[in-house]
């Protein structure tokens, strides 16, 4: 499934308030221009290393959701992964650079993490056995998951000063682990090097020059181990974006070594911040993330055009998420908005923190039942990954286009009529104002049919998502008025649309989300 994005060059301001309940909006879309594309596995979710003892703000929300202890036999887990066909899964997180691999030459007992005041993030070194690695790969092979695995990039280094680590990477344990993985024919799509060691780092940092040299070594190891077979991608550094550090890493690692640059983004603040909910509904605040995506895109173009931007972790609120917001309907607004922002700037992969674990899991940590964001992610895969306000992105969908509209206004709905610039004459275009920041309550992405003649019989598919009982903090989401719940057999429910005449306007209710599929949308940019 290939995604394409178009810039709306012409937008109309609301011209008439029909009532106090909704506003008429007309949008004109220029459908011939392509601005970016994502990968086929753009949608991604993470599984972390945190043990049950990981706590923030007097709560410990991780339970048995770690790579080391997650119940891989729970049938809901496999069904949740398989529903995406495929879902990219990134295995990694803060404790990644304290993980050793239980290979024959490890030279020490293979034991899990334990609390340690002298260890990074308050935990000791932890080990994954090869038996556990076998079990993890079995479920991924069975469900068709696309796997990105994060390697320990601190092995062999020493702490030179406060938070600063020096010395070259000792690759021996990682190499033996990778050799085992290759011998078992486990289909790893990409190996990621390190977690949050870039710039000033989080807990620890490594200079870009040494990091670049180590990535060259990792690339060489992959070339040797995989021979003539398809070689996994090399991605790094999995940290918070620092322009100077990222640019230097590309300069040092040399052309065609680093296939993707991963970065993390938690734009809503700390999990216990009382302003998290308000930030989600503030379009100006949400739009600030575009600066990061834009800057990284330019850094890659200037210093490493062979590479591509990835979001390796995005959870909204950091420190395990917000227990009041992250697993509710409201959380979806920042998430879907950011999917689109990142895509506009050529991001190829976007990994949501987490599939399961913490307060921000797509699945409930204890029951494995999907949280509201899981269904939104399903619809994003099935139809489109979108964003509104300042840009429009489209996806080819069996000959058509899928669109997303987010209404952040608590009180007003929007009646959206959309036109294609292919059937607007010059005089009409001259009277239309260009896009501005007036859209304070509506993040929207929309389009229309185009110049093709219509007999009025064509239909479009609409998927309207609202919270149960109108409560934005509800953990049950309604699709076209019906609650989304697992079937009696524990299967992910079907997501049926309502069929609407393609020529009618689209009503987007207050605090709601709408996916709309147009089967015959005319957009040349989507055909390239």
Automatic annotation (TrEMBL):
Entry membrane topology: Peripheral membrane protein
GO cellular component: extracellular region; lysosomal membrane; plant-type cell wall
SUPFAM superfamilies found in the cross-reference section: (Trans)glycosidases
Subcellular location per the Swiss-Prot or TrEMBL entry: Lysosome membrane; Secreted
Gene3D superfamilies according to UniProt: Glycosidases (3.20.20.80)
An annotated Gene Ontology molecular function: beta-glucuronidase activity
Keyword entries, A-Z: Glycoprotein, Hydrolase, Lysosome, Membrane, Secreted, Signal
The keyword Lipoprotein is annotated on this UniProt entry: no
Keyword Metal-binding among record annotations: no
Signal sequence, renumbered to the chain: 1-19
Domain of life: Eukaryota
PANTHER family, per database record: HEPARANASE-LIKE PROTEIN 1 (PTHR14363:SF21), HEPARANASE-RELATED (PTHR14363)
Function: Endoglycosidase which is a cell surface and extracellular matrix-degrading enzyme. Cleaves heparan sulfate proteoglycans (HSPGs) into heparan sulfate side chains and core proteoglycans.
Family: Belongs to the glycosyl hydrolase 79 family.
Name recorded for this polypeptide: Heparanase-like protein 1
Protein's organism: Oryza punctata (Red rice)
């Amino acid at each position: 499934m290939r995604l394409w994005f178009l810039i709306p060059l012409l937008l109309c301001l609301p011209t008439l308030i029909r009532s106090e309940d909704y506003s008429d909006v007309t949008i004109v879309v220029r459908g011939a221009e392509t601005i970016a594309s994502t990968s086929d596995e753009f949608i991604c979710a993470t599984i972390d290393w945190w043990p049950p003892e990981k706590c923030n703000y007097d709560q410990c929300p991780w339970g048995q959701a770690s790579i080391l202890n997650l119940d891989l036999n729970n049938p809901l887990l496999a069904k949740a992964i398989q529903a995406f066909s495929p879902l990219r899964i990134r295995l990694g997180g803060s404790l990644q650079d304290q993980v050793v691999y239980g290979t024959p030459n490890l030279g020490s007992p293979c034991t899990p993490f334990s609390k340690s005041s002298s260890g990074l993030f308050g935990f000791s070194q932890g080990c994954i056995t090869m038996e556990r690695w076998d079990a993890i790969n079995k479920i991924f092979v069975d469900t068709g998951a696309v796997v990105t695995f994060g390697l320990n990039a601190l092995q062999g280094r020493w702490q030179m000063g406060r938070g600063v680590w020096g010395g070259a990477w000792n690759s021996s344990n990682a190499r033996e682990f990778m050799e085992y993985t290759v011998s078992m024919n486990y289909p790893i799509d990409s190996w990621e090097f390190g977690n949050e060691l870039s710039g000033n780092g989080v807990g620890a940092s490594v200079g870009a020059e040494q990091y670049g040299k180590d990535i060259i070594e990792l690339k060489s190891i992959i070339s040797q181990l995989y021979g003539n077979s398809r070689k996994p991608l090399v991605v790094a550094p999995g940290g918070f974006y620092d322009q100077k550090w990222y640019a230097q890493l590309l300069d040092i690692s040399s052309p065609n070594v680093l296939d993707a640059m991963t970065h993390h983004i938690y734009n809503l603040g700390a999990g216990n911040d009382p302003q998290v909910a308000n930030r989600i509904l503030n379009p100006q605040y949400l739009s600030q993330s575009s600066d990061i995506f834009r800057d990284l895109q330019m850094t890659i173009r200037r210093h490493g055009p062979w590479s591509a931007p990835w979001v390796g972790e995005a959870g909204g609120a950091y420190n395990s998420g917000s227990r009041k917001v992250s697993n509710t309907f409201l959380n979806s607004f920042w998430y879907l908005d950011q999917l689109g922002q990142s895509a506009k700037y050529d991001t190829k992969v976007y990994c949501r923190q987490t599939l399961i674990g913490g307060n921000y899991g797509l699945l409930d940590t204890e029951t494995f039942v999907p949280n509201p964001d899981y269904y939104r992610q399903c619809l994003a895969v099935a139809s489109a990954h979108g964003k509104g306000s300042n840009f429009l992105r489209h996806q080819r969908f069996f000959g058509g286009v899928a669109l997303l509209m987010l209404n952040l206004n608590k009180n007003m709905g929007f009646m959206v009529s959309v036109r294609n610039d292919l059937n607007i004459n010059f005089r009409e275009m001259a009277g239309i104002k260009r896009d501005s920041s007036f859209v304070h309550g509506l993040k929207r992405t929309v389009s229309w049919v185009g110049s093709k003649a219509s007999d009025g019989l064509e239909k479009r598919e609409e998927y309207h998502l609202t919270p149960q009982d109108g409560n934005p903090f509800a953990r049950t989401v309604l699709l076209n008025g019906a609650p989304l719940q697992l079937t009696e057999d524990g299967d992910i429910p079907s997501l049926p649309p309502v069929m609407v005449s393609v020529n009618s306007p689209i009503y987007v209710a207050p605090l709601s989300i709408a996916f709309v599929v147009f089967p015959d949308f005319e957009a040349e940019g989507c055909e390239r």
